[in-house]
Amino acid sequence: MTSATAGATLVPHRDAIDPKFKWDLSAIFSDWDGWDAAYRELDQDGYIVAQRGRGTFPAAERLTTPGDKQDILQMIYDKAIGEAARHGIGAADVVRYFRKVKP
Question: Are 80 and 94 in contact (CB under 8 A)?
């Protein structure tokens, strides 16, 4: 990790962590990439929650399944469009805004 990228991440590279603070993952994953891929999948599917400055924790409860995602997104969209309409903002303006916003 270079000094330019060191400040850009909250999590140091595994090689930079003192071994006494690392779990032995060899019993469940053959390599770091396997662990990283599984972690990313848990994060993406909502099973874990990161709290800045505190760490990563299991989600209190799994609110959605992948099959529910479309229904929930539709509900969020409908609420956003309804709220925008209350303020005189059209649906097309909301969609344009979300397309240009970086997550």
Answer: yes
Q: Are 47 and 59 in contact (CB under 8 A)?
A: yes
Check residue 7 and give left, alpha or beta (phi > 0: left; psi -120 to 50: alpha). alpha
Chain centroid offset of residue 48 CA? 9
Token reading at 24: 């032995």
Give pLDDT tens digits along the chain (103 positions): 444 444 455 667 778 888 888 888 788 888 888 888 888 888 887 788 877 787 777 877 665 666 677 877 888 888 999 999 999 999 999 999 989 988 7
Extract the tokens encoding 72.
Answer: 């929930």
Alpha-carbon gap, residue 46 to 44, rounded angstroms: 6
